[in-house]
Amino acid sequence: MFFKKLQRIFSLGLLLTLMLGTSSIPGVSAAPNPISTNAKASALIDVESGRLLYSSNGDTSMRIASLTKIMTAIVAIEHGKLTDMVKTSKRAVGKEGSSIYLQLGEEMSLSNMLYGLMLRSGNDAATAIAEHVGGSEEGFVHLMNEKAAFLGLKHTQFKNPHGLDEDGHYSSANDLAKLTAYALKNDVFAEIVSTRVKKVPNPHEKWDYSYTNKNKMLAMYEGADGVKTGYTKKSLRCLVSSATRQGQQLAAVTINDGDDWADHRKMLDWGFEHYPLQQLANKGQPIAGYPYAAGQTFKYPLEKQETVQSRLVLYNTSTTRYLLGERGLLEWHLNGSKIGAVPIYDVGSSRLQLPASSQRAIQSLAEFRKASQIEGRAILHQSILKVLGALFGHYQ
C-alpha cells in the first residue's frame, strides 16, 4: 500500500529523484563457481536481506516432513503466551512418529513445549501446541496457512502442525528459505533452535527431562545456530540449517537429500565465500551534499563483480511523512531492481535516536527465558502442597 502511494505521488511530480552514483565492491573475480547437491530441491538465503543466493528446483512443491514445525513454532510464538501451561490431550498423546512422550493430562509451559517441538521434533508437542494456541488442530492449521499467505509463500500449503505425510501438505525449498529467514529474526525462535540441550521440569519423576537437539550441524559446523531436521518414508531426509559468521547469517534448505550434512556444509561455505554481507549505509550516516542522514543501517550480500546504484528520493514538504519527520528515501538498485531502501531524516533528528529493537521484542524474549523457571517453581510448589496435604490429611 505504501509503495502504491509513493508511485501516485511520484506521478504527480511531488518527489525529486537524484542519482547519487554507483557503488561497487572492490576487487574483480570470476563469477561464483556453480554448486550442486544430492537433494531433489535446495535453496540458500541470506537471512538479513532475504536474498536467495542459490536455488535448485526451488519452487517445486514437495513433502517436507518435520520442517513443517518451523511454521508451527513461529505461529505459536506470535499467537500464544509463552508462560501458558499447555495441557496434553488424548489426540496429542496418540500422535505417531517422533515424540517427547507426553502423558495424558500432563501440563507443560508453552515455552518448554516449543523446545520439545524443535529439538526433539515431538509430534505430540506439535499437536498439543496447536490445540492450545489455535483452539483446535484445525484452527491452528488455518493460522499456519494465513501466515504462509502473508509471507508470500506461493508453493506452500499446510494440513497439520507436525509434518506427517498427508495429501495437500507441502512446501518448496525457496518458500522454506523465506520462512526460515523470517523466523530467525524472532529472538525467541532463534534462541530455541540454537539450543543444543534443554532441561525441562518433569512432573512425574525427581529428574528433569533432557532434550538434546537432533540437528548435528550445531556440532559439526562453525557458527551453526539452527534450525530443523525432518524425515518421513515419503519425504525422505529434509534439513534446514543456519549459521552466522562475521555478522552474516545464512540459511540452507534441502529436501530429499541422502547426504544433507555434507551438502549443507558445502552450501554455507559457498555462500559465505562468494556473497559476503556488505554494509551500504550506517544509521545516522550523513548524505553528502544534503542536510540529511540515513535512518537505518542497510546491509546486503554482494558478489565481487556486482555493482549497486544508489538513489535519493525526496518527499514534498506537504506530504504526511515529511510532516512526521521523514525527508525521503535512500534506495539501492541491483541489475535494475530495487533491493532495499531506508528512510532519511534531518541530521540531528530525534528519530535517529530510536532503538533498533522494539521494547516489545525485548520484553518477549525476557518473558520466554523466565517461563521455564516459573514452571519449575510451580511444580515444586505443587509437590510441597502434596507432602503437606498427606501429612495433615487435607490433600485430596
Automatic annotation (TrEMBL):
Family matches, as InterPro entries: Beta-lactam/transpept-like, Peptidase_S11, Peptidase_S11_N
Lineage, broadest ranks: Bacteria, Bacillati, Bacillota, Bacilli, Bacillales
Annotated catalytic residues: S66 (acyl-ester intermediate), K69 (proton acceptor), S121
Peptidase S11 D-alanyl-D-alanine carboxypeptidase A N-terminal domain sequence ranges: 34-257
Name of the protein: D-alanyl-D-alanine carboxypeptidase
Pfam families named in the record: Peptidase_S11 (PF00768)
Leader sequence segment: 1-30
Residues the record lists as binding substrate: K228
